[in-house]
């Protein structure tokens, strides 16, 4: 299996070297970003298996980027590769940004990085079948939506609809795109009814919302309102 890696670093020479080493193992495909803002856009466009982030980057630094990623995905492996060796930086990385590992560039041992990255990607892929949506767990193998131990078996249409939204989380989808993805044509099929039913299943967590975009479509958005209220 080839794992997709998001590598964000404004040092293109260093990232190019490490990226080539990883890709030469035939286990990784590396997607590069030269700043945090570009990396965040890439993260939302591509389904990655792990993230390698520098800390000091233009537009959005690695710590802020890691926190944004953790806001929508609690499980994806995040590794810091950086020149920052200060104890406070390392502590903040683990405590605030919730990274899985931290490497100082000058001390980096690529074979060890490769083994740890591969192990974390393998673990993450086993978890991918279960999607965390706020307080809910969406299990794509069992067709269930679970909150605090209570599970609901989704109908085939609601399952397809939620799976589509999860794949495009925090993005608005055109009504025509949704209908075509679920039913294979552009007939209405009562989409509004299914949206309402899915909202009812998700209504107990205020951080999970299916938003209506007038004259366009819908989107599944995951918020962190508790954090914003602080």
Please tell me about this protein's structure:
The chain contains nine helices and twelve strands. The longest helix is centred in the middle third of the chain and has 18 residues, at 110-127. With 230 residues, the chain is of the alpha/beta class. It is elongated. The strands form three sheets. Strands 2-1-3-4-5 form a five-stranded parallel beta sheet, sandwiched between helices. Helix 6 packs across helix 8. It folds into two domains: 3-127, Response regulator (Rossmann fold, 3-Layer(aba) Sandwich); 130-229, Winged helix-like DNA-binding domain superfamily/Winged helix DNA-binding domain (Arc Repressor Mutant, subunit A, Orthogonal Bundle). Strand 7 (136-139) and strand 8 (144-147) form a beta hairpin.
List the helices and strands and how they pair.
Elements: E1 3-8, H1 12-24, E2 28-33, H2 36-45, E3 50-53, H3 62-72, E4 78-82, H4 87-95, E5 101-104, H5 110-127, E6 130-133, E7 136-139, E8 144-147, E9 150-153, H6 156-167, E10 171-174, H7 175-183, H8 191-202, E11 208-213, E12 217-222, H9 225-229
Parallel strand pairs: 1-2, 1-3, 3-4, 4-5
Antiparallel strand pairs: 6-7, 7-8, 8-9, 10-12, 11-12
Helix pairs in contact: 2-3, 6-8
């Amino acid at each position: 299996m080839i794992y997709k890696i998001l590598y964000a670093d404004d040092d293109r020479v260093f990232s190019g070297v490490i990226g080539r080493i990883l890709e030469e193992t035939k286990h990784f495909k590396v997607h590069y970003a030269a700043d945090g803002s570009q990396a965040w856009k890439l993260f939302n466009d591509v389904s990655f298996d792990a993230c390698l982030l520098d800390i000091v980057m233009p537009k959005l630094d690695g710590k802020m980027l890691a926190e944004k990623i953790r806001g929508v995905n609690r499980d994806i492996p995040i590794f810091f590769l950086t020149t920052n060796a200060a104890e406070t930086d390392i502590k903040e990385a683990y405590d605030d940004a919730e990274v899985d590992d931290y490497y100082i560039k000058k001390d980096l041992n690529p074979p060890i990085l490769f083994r740890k990255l591969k192990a974390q990607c393998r673990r993450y892929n086993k978890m991918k079948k279960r999607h965390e949506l706020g307080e809910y767990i969406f299990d794509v193998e069992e067709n269930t939506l679970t909150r605090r131990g209570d599970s609901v078996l989704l109908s085939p249409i609601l399952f397809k609809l939620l799976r589509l939204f999860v794949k495009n989380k925090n993005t608005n989808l055109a009504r025509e795109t949704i209908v075509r993805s679920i039913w294979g044509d552009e007939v209405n099929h009562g989409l509004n009814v299914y949206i309402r039913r899915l909202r009812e299943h998700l209504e107990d967590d205020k951080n999970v919302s299916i938003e209506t975009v007038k004259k366009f479509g819908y989107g599944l958005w995951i918020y962190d309102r508790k954090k914003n209220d602080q």
